[in-house]
Amino acid sequence: ACPTPHTVLLRAPSPLFPMASLPVSDLVLKVGQGEKMEVRKAHKLVLVRLSNMLEQVLRDQEEEEETCILMPDMSPSALDLILALAYNGWIGGLSPVNIGQVREACTLLNVRQEEFIVRAEERREMVVESQEKNNALMVHEAA
Fold first, then answer.
1. Residues 38/80, Cβ–Cβ less than 8 Å
2. Roughly how many angstroms between the first and final C-alpha of the chain, as a whole number?
3. What phi-psi label fits residue 110: left (phi over 0), alpha (psi between -120 and 50 degrees) or beta?
4. Prediction pTM value
């Protein structure tokens, strides 16, 4: 059987930051090493609210400067999950491996795990709702 997917939610989400309303990214994150290094762009404003370590590192930077942070011990997929959490306030459909990646990234970035909640998703409710919708469509089409 497939494990139940989980959702990670920020315990006290700050105002969310839609990408369209933010200025051009001012932070470059490089993860991995050598040929496997990948680059992601982000916004200091979004990430400092999630990580005390990043807040301390970025506090001393000039506001106009684009900053680059190297994180050789973090995988690109773990960074993608953390960025989704930082920008959206939640990430869903996570496997146990994904949850492990989130926890590992939070440790590297000094994000306290008390800051977020991990919940099992209610797959049964979603299945029942979709069956009810399908039944309603079949009844409507038969009429």
1. no
2. 38
3. left
4. 0.70
